[in-house]
Amino acid sequence: MAETSSSAGTSETTQPQEQGEELISQCVSLLSKNDDTSRFVGLAMVLSISNHVVDPTSVFQRCAAALKPTFLDRLLKAGTTKQKSPEEATQMVELAVNIINAFATSLPDAGNNPFLVDRTPALIAVIPESSAMTVATILQILIVFASGSLGARKIVETEDFGPIVDALAANDNANLVLQHAFTSDLGEAELVRPCLKRLLSSLGNKVGVCERETRLAILSLLGELLTRVPSQFIPADPEWVEPFYAAFRAIFSSGPSSEERRHCIIIIASFLHSYAPSQFFQRFSTPTTDGPSSNTPPYLYLLLQIITIDIRASFPSLLAHLALPSYASTSQRLACNFDILSVFLNFLATASDFSQIGISPDHLLKLRTDISETFGLTLEFLRDRWDAVYTGAAYFEPGFEPADQPKQLTWDSTLLGGPERDALIIGAVRALAFWLREDESLREEAGGMVDVFLGLWTRGQEAGVDYRPWVVTALHGVMEEKHGREVFVQLRAWRTVWEDLRANCDDDLEGQLALEEARLLETFVQAEEFADEVWARELVAFVEETTASWGRDKLELAVVLFSLASECVLATLGPSGRFLQKEVEQLRTVYSRLVALVPPEYGDEVKELVETLENLMTILAVYR
């Protein structure tokens, strides 16, 4: 009796399976036929069967092998012919889209399946005439395609990005499609660059003539692309950016929303990194109104005012928001603010004619006050941020607190990898360093930041961020104040700089940094009259050994090192002239070697080096 029951159960289970297999075979047979009627019936069966089988993936694989992809192309292009009524054409397009969507969501590695991704141009082409629901489905399909290298390339190679650009405001997935496609591993930059330029030009053509909502969506996409796409993909020709300059001026004139301001700041910072800053400053040097030019500030002045106000308004509450999900976005915006400020200050310092930027002396003076106040708050923020995560109070060495006890201040978060990896800290230190070197208003206050600068130097290298050039630049300004030099000695910062200089001065890639480090130490020794006999001997021995193999290409660094060693020896010798007589003789040897490197005919720069050598030897001659 039990055997009979078991046999019956097996028979009941097997029968539906056989029927399901029969339906699948029938569906595959219909799809493989050459008449459209059979294919339509087969497509309708695909969607029905897939919802009632245990393994829909195998069903779709068999159906894809049977169906000719050109049939799907014909369905997608039904609206371009007059053989079908508009209603019939719409139904055919929707059927094709739904079928492709079913295949894309069921087949493995759909983004690299030619049967699917080759439909990309046709899918994009039907977006303008499709309903919102169909457009949403198409964009979902394209996101799947963008996940594969083949699908991403098909999207990137699209001749007309207009349909996707037009969908940006209505559907966020349009943004994601383009982001994912252009940030995939696309291979050679020469192949991708013209494709990206085609998209950027499409965005530029749209940004000046669209509604505010669409404009915001375009700016959002552009900001994401410029910060995520590899720099070698960015077009070398800046012609495509012109429409965005006009859009920025219109936005700033009408009062931007917080989102518009954020996107504009990110894009402008990217432009300044990719193209000559002079182009941007010239475009923004026009007055904001038609009033007298002497009284009307240019758009550049308005932009810088917005930037400094944004920074000052954000700092007071920023520490309390470090652990919030929104902090990453805030950090990026403020970092871009500092990037723009840094480029402007560097441009201002090197400009031969201030009329290039269109800002009057009165407005420049007002701007200087605002920038100084901004960097004053920046110093406070950096101090508080560093204390919060590493020290708890100024000058305490990292790690002084027991490991099993909480830090005295706990509001920081390591979500972004600690402060040394925070984009805001990187941008702030870079801009602040330039300001401290060029402006004396905050140098005394910055003397209390030497421990923070040194911490960023060492911890930044561990985290993969090289703060050394910015720290050296900042310390050049700090060395001008007595307090800064005292802290520099107290923390033995000179030893940190010297060890890095000694390790890298033979590296051609580190040549400029080594030169700046040598100049920094030279300034420090001269201003502080710093005497250290051990270091003096070490310096002279190093200079004598290292410069022996150097050629004329390293003359400037060699002279600065010779000057540093000489100043250190003179400070250590003191008025008595005792000790270090061997080192004085070694310096004379180095002097003779460096003089031999001086070319027979030289310009003003080399003339200054020669004068430095001669002056130092005159002083050292006293100790013969």
How would you describe what is shown here?
The N and C termini lie far apart (122 Å). The longest helix is centred in the first third of the chain and has 31 residues, at 2-32. This protein has a domain at 531-624. The radius of gyration is 34 Å and the shape is elongated. The chain has helices spanning 2-32, 36-50, 56-66, 69-76, 86-106, 114-117, 120-125, 132-146, 149-156, 162-166, 172-182, 189-207, 212-228, 242-254, 258-274, 277-283, 299-318, 327-350, 361-391, 423-438, 443-446, 450-463, 468-478, 482-490, 493-504, 511-528, 533-546, 555-573, 581-597, 604-620. By secondary structure, it is mainly alpha-helical.
Keywords:
mainly alpha; 624 residues; elongated
Would you kindly provide a brief summary of this structure?
The protein is an all-alpha fold.
Please write the string of helix (H) and strand (E) elements: HHHHHHHHHHHHHHHHHHHHHHHHHHHHHH
CA radius of gyration: 34 Å
Report the β-strand fraction as a percent range: under 5%
SS-derived structural category: mainly alpha
Give the overall shape.
elongated
What is the number of helical segments per DSSP (H or I, 4+ residues)? 30
First-to-last CA distance: 122 Å
pLDDT averaged over residues: 84
